[in-house]
Amino acid sequence: GRRGALMLTISVHHPQIRDFIKIKKDLTRVTGANISVRLTDEFLNAVENNDNFELRFPVDSSNPEVTMLASAKEVWDEIVTNAHATAEPGLLFWDNAKNFTPSDIYKDEGFESKSTNPCGEIILSPYDSCRLMVVNLLSFVKNPFTDQAEFDDKLILEFNIAL
Q1: Among 45, 47, 75, 95, which residue is least crowded by beta carbons within 10 Å?
Q2: Are 150 and 143 in contact (CB under 8 A)?
């Protein structure tokens, strides 16, 4: 009887983005998940400049099999209209997320950001787990940024006991 949480995301560049944006209007579909659109700077600039942007599949391919142009303003208006009507889709500012997520420096090893945890607080890589805790390791360093820098073992031990 207990349902799990699920976040479904799609790139704003996916050719079926309009179907995804309005899927929550049908109350019989996608009832056990949150949905969000991964927005890119490319798309947001096109909205701001009232330009077209590219829909493509595969989205991240340098040579997509499917490409077409769409009005960025029209897609943006559909996002806003549906978010107002159903409280979804949510928005993920994907380029910002990727630029500020440490795991993306390891994308060549397969740890590139792909989606989020169910409520969107944490950007996740494939097979990653949801952990709602961040530890600022700098707070465990004595004399940071000096030649005498070292971990405060006593403080780390106290932190582990507190957990």
Answers
A1: 45
A2: yes
CB contact at 8 A, 14 and 20: yes
CB 15 within 8 A of CB 68: yes
Burial code (b: 16+ CB inside 10 Å, e: under 16) for 99-119 equals eebebeeeeeeebbbebbbee
Catalytic residues, by residue number, are: 117, 119, 121
- Residue 97 has a pLDDT of 87
Residue ranges in the chain whose pLDDT is less than 50: none
What pLDDT sits at residue 161?
A: 60
7 contact partners, CB below 8 Å, separation of at least 6 = 33, 34, 35, 36, 115, 116, 117, 118, 119, 120
